[in-house]
Amino acid sequence: MFKKIAIMGRHEDPRVSEPMTVLADYLAQAGIEVLAAEDMSLAIAATRIPESELADAADLIIAIGGDGAMLYAGQLARRGDLPLLGINRGRLGFLADVTPEEMLDSVGHVLAGEFTTDKRLVLEARLERPDEPDTTALALNDVVLQRRETGRMLDFVTRVSGRFVNTHAGDGLVIATPTGSTAYSLSCGGPIIEPRLDAVVVVPVAPHTLSDRPIVIPADLGIELRLLERENTRAEIMADGHSMGEIRPQDRLLVAASETRLTLLHPPGYDFFGILRSKLHWGHDSRKRDLPPEDA
């Protein structure tokens, strides 16, 4: 099924390079052609090609690292519409859900065709400027309006399907997919959305009024955002942590569900709620901890 597999990750990190070397040897012994970026300095048995060509040459990408590595690999995977498997060597690992201890067993299951596919929603953002070409970007996690080089809050307007929603005052706004609902959106008070839902969450960042709350909407409804004129304020748009540039009052940001979806592979036993329990420490009673001595 998978004859050519690309391996990616921050190989300079020993936590990544060690399992990457083990995995490359395992795949080679299984008769799989291993592909890697030509500028990777790690000495593994792999066919080296330009990173930009990995998506066209591979049948599967395996990313080793944290969710940041998965987001980076996902940018390549979307170009060729090929599946992505993640080995977690980061901190949280909502996307890279296979542990290093399970790596070889999990990859063995995938090579044997024992896996489930998970199509993840991707956002398409377009920043329209009246005097410049449009800037576009895809985001698996989120599109964010944030303050830039200023301590002053922002005033901005949101519309959904052309209908006025609200005039906001605060530090910004997060527009997140179900995948991104466990990232920046969660830290801003947004809800966790089960990945199979075709929905988007819109979350104000540090709103000036307590009534400005997160809202979940169908993914097929387009979102429009405009910045209002306010003295000494600047703002920019970020897509999965990468800047799309500054947004000004005369500009318009449009965010909608992309026709592109990212395909994740999960070996047997994948449990989204189990991952939540593990990563968010649900069920752990913080009151059951050792107390300091009375004379401390």
Can you lay out the helices and strands and say which pair or pack?
Elements: E1 4-9, H1 14-29, E2 33-37, E3 47-49, H2 54-57, E4 60-65, H3 67-80, E5 84-88, H4 103-111, E6 116-129, E7 132-139, E8 142-147, E9 154-160, E10 163-170, E11 172-176, H5 184-187, E12 199-205, E13 215-218, E14 223-227, E15 235-239, E16 242-247, E17 252-266, H6 272-280
Parallel strand pairs: 1-2, 1-4, 2-3, 4-5
Antiparallel strand pairs: 6-7, 6-17, 8-11, 8-15, 9-10, 9-14, 11-12, 12-13, 14-17, 15-16
How many structural domains does the protein architecture include?
Answer: 2
CATH names the topology of the largest domain as Tumour Suppressor Smad4
**Tally of strands:** 17
Form type: globular
Catalogue the unreliable spans: none
Residues in β-strands, percent? 35-45%
Structure at a glance:
The protein is of the alpha+beta class. It has six helices and 17 strands. Helix content is 19%, strand content 39%.
Account of the protein in words:
The chain is α+β, with helices and mostly antiparallel strands. The chain folds into two domains: 4-115 and 267-280, 3-Layer(aba) Sandwich (Rossmann fold); 122-259, Tumour Suppressor Smad4, CATH 2.60.200.30. The protein is 19% helix and 39% strand. It has helices spanning 14-29, 54-57, 67-80, 103-111, 184-187, 272-280; strands spanning 4-9, 33-37, 47-49, 60-65, 84-88, 116-129, 132-139, 142-147, 154-160, 163-170, 172-176, 199-205, 215-218, 223-227, 235-239, 242-247, 252-266. A hairpin with a 2-residue loop joins strand 6 (116-129) and strand 7. The longest helix is centred in the N-terminal third of the chain and has 16 residues, at 14-29. It is globular. The relative contact order is 0.15. The model has no long low-confidence stretch (mean pLDDT 91).
